[in-house]
Design brief:
CATH architecture of the largest domain: 3-Layer(aba) Sandwich
Distance between the termini: 28 Å
CATH class of the largest domain: Alpha Beta
Number of domains: 2
Largest sheet: 7 strands, parallel
Helix content: 40-55%
Number of helices: 16
Structural class: alpha/beta
Length: 381
């Protein structure tokens, strides 16, 4: 591995595309504040582009659901071995863990034995499910950099040092103006599809979404369809599915980030995940769907303690955005829900305005810089 840790060194671990993106912004902020730092870790192209020497590629690690983890087990074990070797060999001054909780908390245990301090950025949603993990976090993590204001109180109540840094998406997501949004609602309507950031999510959701779009075409013959292509997804997987529906749908594949899709649409159908929050912070109404294996669904249902899967609905304390989960996420239900919303422009405008009101509760820009400050303070100590 071509990396030197003769000077100060930070190791970062991001197991998913969103963590890779946010981690890269932290590295960028750290470089401005401390140009002498070296970086190693686990991540994807975003971290690599910032000069982080990767010991494992995060594209091989992300999984969908609880049972699906077994298919990725060889890759996960290989990445753990590589991370353990790197921790032991380079003894970094700090380990920054980004989301990806089960994997990262295991690494936190290794770091604790090696006396490497741990900063955890973007908390697992332990306030929603598997709350008992807070005991492990208290034992293994030196500092939590949290992105939701209520998380600070939760962690401090459990004896964990935590700092609210604001949400990192505020730095990259600009809100749509009311005039721009109303223009997007004008005829012909444009429907955006966000089928996920993993190949397995694409296979689970994109055919259902496209079938729903076919049904919507009956009520909206001029409906335009935009399909967002995540950088972490195999383009050919998406194209092969879209080709199946090419005779009835003239759907357009959009690259370059989800914002290139949702800034031009009246409404989205989106797979639950970080991208739904990104769209909500821009003020775009959507129908949120999610489908996993039956066993994963049953296990998750038994463990989850909250009423909604969408963070926006949790903050709103009601179903502001429709959620269609598992069997409810059928082409008929998706099409019917979208049709009702498209036929009620006043409702769509109201949702747009309420989403932007919720945006204001997420803090101010500059999350990456604040995380960098915490990291440097921990190194200096």
């Amino acid at each position: 591995m071509n990396v030197s840790c003769s000077t100060r060194c930070i190791m970062l671990v991001a197991g998913e595309a969103s963590g890779d993106f946010h981690g890269a912004n932290v590295v960028k902020a750290l470089k401005k504040k401390a140009p002498d730092l070296n970086f190693i870790g686990i991540g994807g192209n975003a971290l690599k582009d910032q000069g982080v020497k990767l010991v494992a590629d995060s594209a091989q690690l992300s999984v969908v659901g609880i049972t699906e983890v077994f298919a990725r087990l060889p890759h996960l074990l290989s990445a753990i071995k590589a991370a353990k070797t790197a921790l032991g060999q380079f003894k970094p001054d700090l380990l920054i863990l980004i989301d990806f909780p089960d994997f990262n908390l295991f690494l936190a245990g290794i770091a604790r034995k090696l006396k490497v301090p741990v900063l955890y950025y973007i908390s697992p949603q332990i306030w929603a499910w598997r709350t008992g993990r807070v005991k492990k976090i208290r034992r293994l993590v030196d500092h939590m950099a949290v992105i939701l204001p209520f998380e600070t109180h939760f962690y401090r109540k459990h004896g964990v040092q935590a700092t609210f840094v604001g949400h990192p998406l505020l730095d990259s997501v600009s809100p749509l103006s009311l005039s721009r949004f109303e223009n997007n609602m004008s005829s012909p309507p444009v429907l955006g599809l966000l089928p996920g950031s993993r190949n397995r999510e694409i296979l689970n959701h994109l055919p259902v979404m496209l079938e729903a779009a076919q049904k919507l075409k009956k009520s909206f013959p001029d409906l335009k369809i935009l399909v967002s292509l995540a950088s972490s997804v195999n383009r050919r997987v998406v194209e092969q599915i879209m080709e199946t529906y090419s005779d009835t749908l003239n759907a357009e594949l959009i690259e370059g980030g989800a914002s290139n899709t949702f800034k031009n649409v009246a409404i989205l159908v989106a797979v639950s995940g970080t991208v739904t929050l990104e769209a909500a912070l821009a003020g775009v109404p959507m129908v949120i769907i999610y489908r996993v294996s039956p066993l994963s669904y049953q296990v998750g249902k038994a463990l989850i303690r909250v009423k909604f899967i969408s963070l926006i609905n949790l903050i709103a304390q009601r179903q502001l955005l429709p959620e269609l989960i598992q069997k409810e996420a059928s082409p008929e239900n998706i099409a019917g829900t979208v049709e009702k919303m498209l036929n009620n422009p006043k409702q769509l405008t109201s949702i747009h305005q309420q989403l932007l009101w919720i945006r204001n509760s997420f803090g101010n820009r500059g999350a990456s810089a604040r995380v960098a400050d915490i990291a440097l303070n921990m190194i200096e100590k």
